[in-house]
Fold these 3 entries.
Entry 1:
Amino acid sequence: MSTDKTLTPPPHTEPVVFTRDMLDWLPWLEPMAEADMTEHHIKSLVDAARVKSPYFRLLARDPDVLEARTRTDKDIFYNPEAGLPRAERELAAAATSRLNGCIYCASVHARFAATYSKRVDDVQRLLDEGVEAKLDERWEAIVAASVALTALPLSFGKEHVERLRAVGLDDAAIADLIGAASFFNWANRLMLSLGVPATQPK
Amino acid sequence: MTDVIDSLVGIAPGSKLDAIRAQRSEARKHAQASYTSLFEPKELGGVSADERHAIASFVASLHGEPKTDAFYAAKLPAALHSAIAAEAAAAKTKGPYGHFPKGPLSVEDAPGPTWKVSDAGRAALGPRLAAAFKHTHMLVFHPRDASAASLQSLLDAGWSTDDIVTVSQLVSFLSYQIRVVSGLGVLASTL
C-alpha cells in the first residue's frame, strides 16, 4: 500500500459537451507544491508560467520525461518551417481528441484550429457532430487520417496517403499530420486519466 | 545511440524520410529523449527497469505491433515476456470505446470490456504489474473511462503518486511512438 491518496476535486461543473470555451482541469493526484520544486523541476516545465498549472506540476514529478514531452509537442505544433499549416496540425489534434473523448484537449485545440483557419463553423461542427462531420474534402481527408491513426486496430494505409496527396499535402505535411495525431494519442491519455475538466466560473 | 523511431521504421540515413524528419529535428531529438528518460533514466525511482519494459511490451502487443514488442521484450526475462504475450492475446480488442459524462454525449457512449489480468497472469506478473496492466488496458482502449478510482487501485497495489506519473507517461508515450512508427512506415512505402 502506498500512503499517497487520490484527491477529491472541489465542487465543480463538468462540461458535458465538446466546446471551444476555456476550461479548467482538476487533478486526481497531488501536483508538486511550488515550494518543493527544484531548478530541475522548474526547467522541465520549459515555460516558467506553467508553474501555475496543476497539470504540469503533477507531470513534473517525472521531470525529464515532462521536458522531453513538451519539447516534442512544441516542435510538432509550432515549428513554422514547411509542412502542414498550423491550423491543420491543430485540426488533427482536435479530431484525435474528439475521437478519444478528451473534452479538455479538444477545447484547447479546437480554439487554435478556429483561430488559425478562421473556419469557426467547421471546427464547431467537428466538435458537435464528431469525426464524421461534413467539412470539405481537404479537412475531411485530414480528419479521416487522424482517425485511422487513432482508432485500434490502427488502419492508416496507403489509401490515406493518396487521399492526402490528392488534396494538396506534400510528404512533409503528411509527416506533420502523423506527428500531430500521434502526439495527441499521448496527450489525451494523460489529460483524461490524471484529472477531470471543469467549466470556468462565469 | 540509434534513434528508436528511425530504427523501428527502418529509416536509412540520406533517405527521403530521413530528410523529412530532419525538418522537425527538435521533435525527433526529444521523442528520442522521451524514450531515454523512460527506459534509461538517470534514476529509476519506484518503477523498475523490468516493470518499464513489461508495460511497453504489453502496450505494443495490444496494438498488434510485433516489431515494437520485440524491441522492448528483448530486455525482459523470457518467462515474463511469455506471460505478457498471453495476457495481451486475451486482452486485445478495438478502441476507443467508453462513456462520456452524462448528458447530450451519452448517445455516443460505446460499451466495451473492463479487462483484468487472469489468475495465471497475476501469479506470473505479481500484484503491482497486474494492477498496472489493468490500468494500461483502459488507457489504451477506453481512456475516457478513466477515474480517480482507477488511480486508487494503483495506489492500493503499491504504486506511489510519482510512480503513477511515470507509468502514465510510459503508456501514453508508447501510444505516440507506435503510431508514429506505423504512420511513417506507411508513408515510406509510398516514397
Entry 2:
Amino acid sequence: MSRILTRTSLILLGIVLVPEWALSSAGEEIYQIEQGFKLIPAIIMIALLGVYVGVGFLSKVSETSGYWVAGRGIGKFGNGAAIASDWMSAASFMGVAGLLYLKGWFGLGYIIGWTGGYVLLLTLLAAQIRRFGKYTIPEFLGDRYDSHVVRLIAASVTVIIAITYATAQFKGIGLICGWIFGMSYSTSVLFTAGVVCAYMLISGMSGVTRNQQIQYVVLISAFLIPLWFLIKKAGGSGVLPQLEYGSILSGLMEGKVASGTLPPEGIEELRKAYLPWGMGNIYQFVALVFTLMVGTAGLPHIMIRFYTVKNEDVARKSVLWGLFFIGLLYWSSPVYAAMGKFWNPMGGKAVADVIILSAPELAGLGIVFIGYLAAGAMAAGLSTVAGLLVAGASAMAHDWYATVFKPDCTDQQALFVGRVFTAVLCGVVILTALNPPALIAQIVAMAFAIAGNTIFPATVLAVWYSRANKYGALAGMLFGLVMTLMAMAGWIAQIPLFGPEGLLPATSSALIVCPLAFLINILVSNITDGRVSEGSAAKMDNILRKLHNLPGYVEEETNAVKSPYTH
Amino acid sequence: MAVRHRVQINFFRPVTPSMKKEVAVARIILALWAFLSFGIPLLIWLAGLGDPTGLGESILTRSRFLGFPLHYWLVAQGATIGYVLLCKLYCVLWDRRITRHRQAWAKSGGR
C-alpha cells in the first residue's frame, strides 16, 4: 500500500523543494525516500533511543557522588569520540554530502574548514584551556580579563550560537522523525522537541558523555556501511570506497555517468562543478575556509570538552582522536556526493537533501538498516543538541545568574535556573525551527562566523598576549559581534556587499573581521594599559601563570558555585 | 606581598625556556597548517590562471592520483589526512621536547 505513497514521496520535503523536483524528476526514482509510517525502522529507532536514555539514567544513578571525578577521568579515545559526536550534527550527517553534490569541488571548502579548525584549537588553545580547568568559556574569559561584562558578552554569544546551531539540528531530527513516523514537518519538530527534552531530563547531564560514545559508534557505522554496497553497484571492487570513487569522479569530469555519456551541455555542467572555480572564486573559497576554521576553534561547546579530561596530555591526544573520528565521516561524504552525481547528474536540491537517507534503499540494504541509519542520524542530532543546550543553559545559569545576578545563590537554585533556561532555549529553538529564517545551512555557517569573530580572537589573545585587557577584549568582541550581525542583516536584506558574491559575505566574514578584531583588541589594550588597576592586573597575571605553568601561581579563594552543567 | 613584575606573555616573544619550546612546536604545526589550508588552494589557483574560461583548468586538474583528479584529491583527502598527521606530529613533538624537559626540570628540583 505504500507503493502509491512512493509516487508522491518527498512531500515531506516538498514545501521547500517543489520547483526543482518538478523540473528534474526524470531518473530521480532511485533517489526517493518512502513516506508513511515504517514499523520496523520505528521499532529500531525507539529501541536505540531507549538505550541512550537507559545509559544516561544508569550513569546518573551511579555517578552522582563522584560526578566530577568521573567526569575528569575521561580518556583520549572516549573524549575523542565525544568530541566527534558533539561535532557531527544531524546537519553534517545529512547535509555535507548534499552540499558537495550541489557545489562540487567548491564544497570541499566546508570539509577542510571543519577539520582544519581543530589544528588551530590544538596548537593554540587546548592545553591552556585544560590548565585553567574551570567550567565554561565565558568563565574563562571573564576571569582572565577580570571583567563581568566580558563574561556576559561571551555568555550571550554562547547562547546565540546555541540557538542558531540547535535550530539546524531540530530541522534534521524533524526530517528523520517525519520520515520514520510519517508526520508533517511541524508535528515532527514538536515531536523532536519532546524527545530532546525527555532525553535531557531523564538522562541528565552526566549521561551525556557516555552516550556520546555510543552515539558515535551508531552514527559512524550507519554512515559508512552503505558505501561498500553503493561502490560495488557503481562498478567498483568494494574494498575501500573512499579511494575507489576517484575513478568515478574522474569519469564524471568527462561526462561519464551511469546512463552513459552526457551530451555536451551536461559535460559542461559537470566540468563547472568539479573544476576549481566553477562555483566560486579563490577569495570566496579562502574566506569560507578561514571562517569555518576560526569558528570551529571558537565554538564554546567544543572547547568545553577540554575541561572534562584527566590532564592536558589527554586533552591534546583527544583532539587527535576526535579529528580522526570526524575525518572518517568527511572522507566518506564526498563518496555519497559522487555516487549521487553518477546516478543522477542533473538533480537539484531535492536529490541533495535525501542523498544519505535514500542510500540504504539504493544499496538494497533492506528496511532494518534504514531504521539503523535513522537512529544514527538521530544520534548525531541528539548528541549535538544536548551539548549545545548544556553550553547555552550553563552560560545563562552559571555565568549570568550564579555569578553576576545572584552570586550568593545555592547550588540548588542554580540547578533550577539551569533547568528553566534549558526549557526556555528549547522553546526558542522550536519557534525558529518552525519558521526557519532563510536557509538553515547558511545560518549554521553564520554561527561559525560569530564564534570566529568574537570568541576566537578574545580567547587566543587571552592565552597568548599578556597585555590584552578587558577594554581591548570588550572593543574586539563588540566589533566582531556587531560586524557579524551587520553582515547577517545585510545578507537578509540582500545588500550585494554581504551577499555570496560580495566582499564581506555573511557566511564567510571572518577573513576580514577576525584579524581586525585581533588588531582592535591589541591596540585598545595597549592604549588603556595604564587604566588597569593593580588588583586587576594581579588577578590577570595569576590566571596567566596558571595557563602557562609559570611559577608563582596562587590558588584563588573562591566560593563560586560549581556548575552542575558542564560534563 | 612584594610587588611583582607583570607576567610577560607574547606568542612571538616567549620568555621561559618551556614556553619557548611550546611556541616553537606550535609554529611548525601552524606553518604546515597554513600551507595545507591556504597554500594548496593558492597553488591550484596559480596553476589555473592560464585557463581562459576562468574555471581554473590546469595540470593539477588534468593529472590523476589514485584515480582522482589531483586538485580534488589534494583538498578532499590530502589536506584532511594532513591535519590528522599534524595533530599526531604535535603530540609527538610535545612529548619529545616538552614533557621530557619538564620531567628533567622537576627532577632537578625546578619547582
Entry 3:
Amino acid sequence: MNTQILTWLLAVPAVAALVILAFPRSWETGIRRFSVAAMLVELVLSLRLVFADYSGAGYNFVEHIAWVESFGISYKLGVDGFSLWLVVLTTALSPVALYASWGSVTKSIKEYAFSFLLLELGMLGAFLALDLFLFYVFWELMLVPMYLIIGVWGGKDRVYAAVKFFIYTMVGSLLMLVAVLYVVSSYEQLAGHYTFDLQELSNLVLPALPQYLCFSAFALAFAIKVPMFPFHTWLPDAHVQAPTGGSVILAAVLLKLGIYGFIRFAMPLFPVASQALGPVLAGLGIVGIIYGAYTAWVQRDLKKLIAYSSVSHMGFILLGLFAMNRTGISGAMLQMINHGISTGALFLLVGVIYDRRHTRMLDDFGGLAKVMPRYTLFFLIITMSSIGLPGTNGFIGEFMALAGTFFSRTPIGFGSSWFIMTLLATTGVIFAAVYMLHAVLRMFWGKVTHEENESLPDINSRETLAVLPLVVMVFWIGLYPKFFLDKMNPAVDSFVTDFTVRYYEGRRTSEARLVDFDELKARLEAAGELAMTERSEEEARR
Amino acid sequence: MSALIGVSPLLLLVAAGLSIMVIDAFAEDRTELALVTAASLFVAAAVAGVLMLGDDITTAPELVTRYLAVDRMGLFFDVVICAGAGLSTLIAGAYLREHGFERGEFYVLVIFTAFGAMVLARAVDLLSIFLGLETMSLGAYALVAYRRTSARAVEAAVKYFLLGSFAAAILLFGSALLYGATGHTDLLGIQQSVAAGAADPVLTIFALMMLVVGLAFKVGAVPFHMWVPDAYEGAATPVTTFMSVVVKAAAVAVLIRVLIGAFGDQSTMGLYTGWTPVIIILAVISMVYGNLAAIAQSSVKRMLAYSSIAHAGYILVGIAAASEVGTFAVSAVLYYMAAYTFSNVLAFGSLILMGSKGKEAVSYADLAGAGRRHPMAAFPFVIGVLSLLGLPPTAGFFGKYYVFSAAVQAGGPMVWIAVLGVLASVIGAYYYLKVIVYLFMKEPEEDAPIAVPMQSWYVVVALIVAGYYVMKLGIFPSQYLDWAVAAAAGVIG
C-alpha cells in the first residue's frame, strides 16, 4: 500500500462518493457520518506523506502508468515539498468544512456529500498530478462540484454566482489547454513522440515569443483562480453566495491551486516569459493587496469583507512567488497554508454567527463579546493570524514574502524595482490591520446594540470541534514553522536553481529545441556557476 | 455470399427493413417492433465492428467497390450510424407509445434512412453519393413529417424538404460540372485527373464549391443551417436525435471522402489554397454563430439544435486541419463523431425521459426543479450536457481535445482557429449549464403544468448504453483511438 498511497488518496473519496449514491435518501445521519468519516480516513492516509524524506529534490511516492499511450498521456502522480502541505491542507480542511456544513445544509444532503467528496478528489488530483493532461482533467473536474455547491445550496443570487464562477474559470482553463497542446506538439516535432509528462516536457526550450503566448495562457488560467486583480470579480460573488462549507473550501484550497499552477507548471515551462512578466504579475499582486484591503474596509457584509481580504492576501503570495528567491518562495508557500487556515477558520466563524442570526451585516452586530465570549476569543485569534501578528502563522508567512521581495535585487527577480515593491507591499500590511480590526471593533466591542443579539447562544461543541484544530495550527506554524519549512525548503532550492538554468538556456535559444536539463545542471554545478545567484542573494541580505 | 462480406452491414439492414415491413403487416403489438428494429441495427453495428477489427475487409466484387468503399472508415461509420440509429429507435419506442402515435412505418423509415446514410458514408462515386444522399434525405423528410397532426412538424418538414432539394440540386450541378471538368464520376479518377493537371482548374473549383455547399447543408454548417433549428424543433424528439447523429455522421463521412480523398492534392489542399480556407471560414462562423444563437433559446430542443451547428463547426476545424496533418486530423474527426453521437443521444434521450403523456419536456421551464424531484432521471442529462460542453472526463472532452490538438499540430493560422474554437465553446458553458441550473437550482412557476418523467425501460437502456460509452470514450479512449486511426489511415492516399 505504501507505494500506491497516492492512488489510495484518490480512490477513497471516489469510492466514498459512489457508496454515498447507494445510500437511501432518508438515512440522513448515516450519510452525514459516513462522508465525514471517509474524509477523516483520507486525512489519516495523507499524514503518511508527511513522514517521508523530502531532503532530496525529486518527487516521492511516484506512480507512473501509461493511460493513453498513443498520445503519451500517463497517469503520473507524485508529491514533493510544494504539494505536500497543500495536500495535507486539503485533506484536513475538507472534513472540517463538510462537518461544519452539516449544521446548515438540510436539503439534498446526499448530493451535497457526493459533490464534496468529488471536489476533494479533484483538488487532490490536481495537486498530485505530474502529467499535464491528468492535471487538466482534475482541474476541470473540480469545477462541476463547486458549481453545484454554490448553485444548489447557496444564497439568494446563487445561480448568478455559480455561473460566473464556472465561466470565468473555464475561459482561463480552455486557453491553457490550447497552450498545453502547443507545448506538446512542439515537443513531438522535436522528439518524435507525444508526452504530457511534466518532467519530459521541461526539457523543451521554447523561443521567446511562444513562451510569452503560452505563459500568458497559463497565467490567465491561474490568475483567475488565484484570483489576481483584475480577474478577482467572481470571488466576492462566489463567496457571498456559497454555503459555509463551500466558502471554506473555496478560500482555503481552491485559490491555492492558482499559485500552485504557477509554481508547478507555468514558471518551470516558460522561464523567460515568467521572468519578464513576473514583476508585472507581482505588481498586479500589489495592486490587489492595496485594492483588496481598501475594498474590504468599506464592506458591510462580513463574507464580502473576507473575500476581498483574500484578494489582498493572495497578492502577498504572488509577490513572494515572483521574488524568485528562497525566502520569498518559501514565504509564499507557507502563506498559502496560512491563508488556508485563517481564512477557512474565518468563514467557519462567519457561518456560526450566520446560522444564529441569518445575517452577516456588520451593522447587525455589536457588543458580541459580552454575549459570546468564547466565540469572540476564537474570532480574535484568527483575526490576529490574518493580520499577521507575531506569534501567529500569518506573521511568519507575510514576513518571509516581504523579506523575499526586499532581497529580490538579483537579475532574476524584481531587479531594480525591489524597493518600490517592498515599500508598497509593506504599506498593504497596515491596511490589513485596519480592515480586520475595524470589523472586530464593530462586531464585538461596545454595547449590545440589537436586542436580538442579547440571547445568542455561544459557540457550541460541534462548532468548536471544527475550529479548534485550525486554532492549534495557527500557533503551531506561528511558533515552530521550522517543521513545515524544512519539508519544503529542498524543493524550493532546487526550484530556484532549475529556474535559473532554464532561464539562461531559454534566453540563449532562438528556436525550439530539446535540452537535457539534468545533465546541463550537473555540468554547471561542477563549474560552480550555479552558486552565483545564491551568492548575490547573500550579498543583498548583508 | 462471402464475396459481399465487406458490405454485409448494409445488406443486413435491407433485409431487416423488408422483414419489418412484413412483420408490421401482421403484428398486433407495435412496441416490439422498436425492439426488433433496434436489435437489427445493433447487430449491424456489431457486424461492422467485428469486420473493422478483422484483418481482411476488402472482399467485395468490383461492381460494388466502384461505387461503395469497402474500407475501415466505411465500417467505422457503419458502427456510428447504426449505434446512433439503434439508440434513437429505442428512445422512439418509448416516446411514440407514450405519446400515442406509434405506427410501424416509423421503424421502416428509420432503417432505410440509416441505410441511405451508410451508403452515403461509403460513397466513392458522384452517382452513389447522390443516391445515398437522396435515400437518406427522403427518409429524413418523411420522419420529420411523421407527426402529421402537428402543424409545426409539417411546416418543419416542408421547409427541410424545400431547402434540402435545393442543396441536393446544387450538389448535383456540382457533380455534373466535375464530370465535365475531369471526365470522371469516381473520386479516384477525379483525384488522378486533378493531380495530373488535366482538369480545368476554374471549373473544378466551382464544382468543388458546389459539392461543399450541398454537403455543408447536410452537416448543418452556417450559413447553410437555416433548416436545422426548425426541423429539429418541429420533428418528434426521437427523430431529432436520429437526424442529429445519423444525418450529420454520413455527411461528415462523405465530406472527408470528397475533400481529402478526391481533392487531397497539393494544388487543391493547403492552408492558403484550395478548399481549406473555405472550410475554415465555415468552421469559424458555425462555431461562433451556433454558440451565440444557442444562448438566446428558451426551448432546450432548439438550444440543442444550435449546439449541433456549433459542433458542426468543431468538426470542420478537424477537417480543415486534415489538409496539413492528414490521418491525425481525420481520426480526430472520426473520434469526435463517435463522442458526439453518444453525447447527443444522452442529452436528447434525457430530455425525452423528462416528459410523459400530456406534458412533454421541451423548454427550460419544463425542467425546473425536475432534478430535485427525480435525481436519477436528471443524472444522465447532466452527464450529457457536460460531455457536449467538453468537460473531462467525458467523451466530449476527449473529442474536443483531439480535434483542437489536430488544429494546433497543423500550425500557422490553425492555432488561432483553435483558440477561437475554445473561446466559442466557453459560450457553450452558459447554455449547457442552464440545463443544470433549471434541473437543480430552480423551482417551477406556480400553477405551471409539471412534466413528469416517463416510465420506460427502452429509454433507460438507451441512456445507460449511451452514458456508458460517454464515460468510456472519455476515460479509457486508447482502444477507440486506435480504431479511429486505423479507419482514418485508409482515406489518405
